[in-house]
Amino acid sequence: MGEIVLAAKMTHVPTMLMSEQEGPIKGKRQAAIDGHFEIARRARELGADTVVICDTHWVINAGFHINANRRFEGMFTSNEFPQFIQDLPYAYEGNPELGDAIAAKASQMGAYTLSHRLDSLELEYGTLVPMRFMSRAHEMKVVSVAAWCTVHGHDESRIVGEAIRAAIEDSDSRVLLVASGSLSHKIWANRDYAANNGTFTISSEFNRQMDLHVLEMWKRGDHATFLKMLPEYAQYCCGEGAMHDTAMLYGALGWDGYEGKCEVVTEYFPSSGTGQTNVIFPVG
Description:
By secondary structure, the chain is of the alpha/beta class. Helix content is 37%, strand content 25%. The chain is built from 9 helices and 10 strands. The strands form 2 sheets. It has an 8-stranded mixed β-sheet, with helices on both faces. Strands 4-5 form a two-stranded antiparallel sheet. Strand 9 (263-271) and strand 10 form a beta hairpin.
């Protein structure tokens, strides 16, 4: 019987890659990188063999979708930020049986989901950035779940999360579950970016205060209250991918019955107007 051994909400900002390159960003995102290393280290200690990543950079407009290739290999350049992420090589093993099982479970439970084994279906950088760093600390198979959901409700994403857990428990996989996305996500307007040192600042003080409040709720385990405010939080604070990654995470952890006291492993930081962090959601 498989299990989710660890869960996390993780940043995937492109400046993490730039932090390891020569230039003005060098070294500036080391805390976020170290957070990825720490999450992967703990996953290794807990015997995780697979990471399931709910990716808010994979946009979908109908149904839910899972990239369940047996192997992922290629060279990635972001069409959103080609100046930030370009010619990024990657090579990871997949867990296609688990990906297929999640899709089948989700469809049975009422959230129509398709699993794909297509060599031409690339991974998005909400998966590739965390794997870039976590793979250095621990080699895991990868399953990527689309979580930039444009015409979907959080209730459906909750079902996908429940299906993720059910499929894992029916398998022999030990899984690190990742919600890959920011907290607030109001990127600076293009005309205002440079004037506000946008790479290192938040675009809204209201959003920053809400983000910090949410982190305190997570740390004390007040998830039931957070879930009551999730729709408005995602709407008014421009949650990345409408925070469907977070809804999937909570669906897998038991929704408002989850009481784990979260651990912030990377202190909150602003990036391009958005609010970012790495947070461990304990399980078991």
